[in-house]
Amino acid sequence: QTMATSSSDRRLHHVESGSGRMQRLNAVVLGESIASEEDELVFPSEGFSEQALVSSHVQMYKRSIEDPAGFWSEIASEFYWKTKWGEEVFTENLDVRKGKITIEWFKGATTNVCYNALDRNIEAGNGGKIAIQWEGNEPGHDAQLTYSELLEKVCQLSNYLKDIGIRKGDAVVIYMPMLMELPIAMLACARIGAVHSVVFAGFSTESLAQRIVDCKPKAVITCNAVRRGTKVIQLKDIVDYALVESAKNGVLVGACLTYENPSAMKREETKWQDGRDIWWQDVVPKYSTTCEVEWMDAEDPLFLLYTSGSTGKPKGVLHTIGGYMIYTATTFKYAFDYKSSDIYWCTADCGWITGHSYVTYGPLLNGATVVVFEGAPTYPDYGRCWDIVDKFKVTILYTAPTLVRSLMRSGDEYVTRYSRKSLRILGSVGEPINPSAWRWLFNVVGDSRCPISDTWWQTETGGFLITPLPGAWPQKPGSATFPFFGVQPAIVDEKGNELEGECSGYLCIKNSWPGAFRTLYGDHERYETTYFKPFTGYYFSGDGCRRDKDGYYWLTGRVDDVMNVSGHRIGTAEVESALVSHPQCAEAAVVGVEHEVKGQGIYAFVTLVDGVSYSQELRKSLVLAVRHQIGAFAAPDRIHWAPGLPKTRSGKIMRRILRKIASRQLDELGDTSTLADPSVVDQLIALSDF
Ligand code: WTA
Question: Which of 33, 190, 456, 662 would bridge with 466, disulfide CB 3.0–4.6 Å?
């Protein structure tokens, strides 16, 4: 892609910049000597930088690296702490040779995230400001809560939870759709020091049970049903089965608090177990609207969130209170250039990390107005997002490349029909945003006015690690640009040598940051092995990355056996184990393949049990097995029959070959002579249905 052919080039504006690097970049543009995608620069529009929170980041970044303790404690001082931290702001050991991996920030200090998000903002005079602007599945169905009202709702639930015996440190599983009650439940747990574990309401009963068995919650909070688009999903049924399954595994959950969602399902139609199940509406409103805060150590756990790894069992990523609070609040503020007049909408579900850090905690800690949307972004039609933007005058829209690509395909008229004048910043997360989707978002949605914050981060990192700061530097479509304050990335080769300058390799981080996860729940050893052993001395992200000649970072996707399907992390091993649970499946190997809308699609090679023959019905029932085991979002896009799988003599499946077959690059199969049985490759090709 050259400058001359790009659609955004005519709209480029130049900003004055004090730094040498920026001047050099300006020169590249002015010289018109643009050769590749790496050279395309998009500058903030005139006037944007003048009003931006950070217009020259160089000094601030330098300070954050040279004096992290000073930098972060100054920011932390803007929050409320019951007792302050001591001399030692943080301690870290990221080097397995030096002993146990530890990351601690503000240890010994006491605070409460819920207090900082709600009470503190109300005390500052913002009690009447809208905290949550909710939009239901059906257009016209909406509701809102001010900061004071939100606090009251949270306190009532906190009091209820305390009343049924939930104490500091107890786990609570939340399995809910995007109702206001979902962030309310998270905050209510945080207020009393309970550890929430939100499970995305698209996960199946098996996955939910697995998470319940792992974290042994005292209560589950759910909702009877939800409407998404035209579908009704009966969540309570899924929870019921999961609780039966958990009980079989020795985990008995005493309370299932169920929110009645009358627009989806009446309570009379909901299956019920007396003694265990309680209607939210019957009990919670009876409690007091004030609730004492439980003051927590900064290093006490705030939540667990399960995520996929390269081996079967999901990992319980554990975040603690103090550092996560400071980090989500600060990254939100700077990466979205947040001003108190902003109306912010993040399309993510609270079941994923994005919904934790950038629907609930980050924005509310900043006293922002947050739009929470229950429905599907393409219902009743492809214009729904822009309808919501206009309706609430959304100024910051944070979304995912997969949604951008699907809207892009449905035609510009769905966008241009709406004004979108309120928008000033756009954001992207979940996977690398391809330059063409970036340009469409920039030109069509943002009318070439709105910088795009392409934020790179992970469940493990708690908040953004590499992200543009709008107004501070020019962007390159498809690049997450530069590290956030306090973050020192390193790109290393296979041997763990740090590469300098222009390079590509494995993306690692050299130091800790306040929002980093502290462990994998119940498995510190797996934490060390997965993240700190691959490259000694570094946190390893699992992503590949390239740094260009101007220092911009370009994420190139996962380098482990984790797929990224519509921005959702799915382990190949998880899908394989779901397939193998099918009685007629003997063996399965799964790879990710390029997919126009989803980013990656799931491609499964399946070997059947002897004597079973291929059929379309069997294909369907294999897909169904995955839906049951994991959830609909993990359903394979393709099943490829495999009489045998390409294995080395030691029995290891050669995924490299499978990836080539799946992506039809048959002339790039490479060396197959090391296979135990090279003829399986020909058999596989013969059975391709393309
Ligand atoms: C990918 C989501 C490129 C990446 C916040 C990472 C991205 C994984 C980006 C984490 C981005 C996320 N550019 N890749 N802006 N954002 N990723 O834990 O592969 O669900 O490792 O966290 O998503 O997914 P997770």
Answer: 456
Band the pLDDT of 690: cuts 50, 70, 90: low
Distance 555 CA to ligand 1 centre (A): 9
Q: Is the CB of 560 under 6 A from ligand 1?
A: no
CA nearest ligand 1 atom 1, residue: 431
- Ligand 1 pocket check: which of 203, 433, 458, 558 to mutate, most ligand atoms within 8 Å of Cβ? 458
Q: Give me the residue label for tokens 């003048």.
A: 50
C-alpha 74/C-alpha 70 separation (Å) is 6
Residue 55: pLDDT band with limits 50, 70, 90: confident
pLDDT for the residue numbered 39 = 86
* Ligand 1 pocket member 480 (CB < 6 A): yes
Q: Given a cut of 60, is residue 596 above it in pLDDT?
A: yes
Ligand 1 atom nearest to 569, measured from its CA:
20
Q: Give pLDDT tens digits for 86-137.
A: 999 999 999 999 999 999 999 999 999 999 999 999 999 999 999 999 999 9
Distance, in Å, from the CA atom of 191 to the CA atom of 53, rounded to the nearest integer, reads: 31
Q: Does 21 have pLDDT greater than 70?
A: no
- For residue 69 the two structure tokens come to 């303790």
Q: Residue 310: what pLDDT? A: 78
Tell whether ipTM is more than 0.85.
Answer: yes
Which residues have a Cβ under 8 Å from the Cβ of 193 and sit 6 or more positions away?
Answer: 112, 167, 168, 169, 294, 296, 300
Cα 579 from Cα 586, distance rounded (Å): 9
Instruction: Take atom 12 of ligand 1 and give the residue whose Cα is closest.
Output: 430
Q: 558: Cβ below 6 Å to ligand 1?
A: yes
380: preceding bond cis by omega (within 30 degrees): yes
Q: Which residues are catalytic?
A: 560
Name the residue of 456, 475, 539, 570 to mutate for ligand 1: max ligand atoms within 8 A of Cβ: 456
* Residue 688: per-residue pLDDT: 85
Quick count: other Cβ atoms within 10 Å of Cβ 514? 28
Q: Are 177 and 235 in contact (CB under 8 A)?
A: yes
Ligand 1 mutation pick, 509, 539, 545, 564, max ligand atoms within 8 A of CB: 564
Among candidate residues 118, 169, 167, the one with its CA nearest the CA of residue 147: 118
Element holding 318 (H helix, E strand): strand 315-320
| d(CA 461, ligand 1 centre) in Å | 10
- The closest residue, in CA terms, to atom 7 on ligand 1 is 431
How far, in Å, CA of 201 to CA of 185, rounded? 14
Nearest residue (by CA) to ligand 1, atom 22, is: 458
Q: What's residue 527's pLDDT?
A: 97
The residues near 97 (Cβ < 8 Å, ≥ 6 apart) are 536, 537
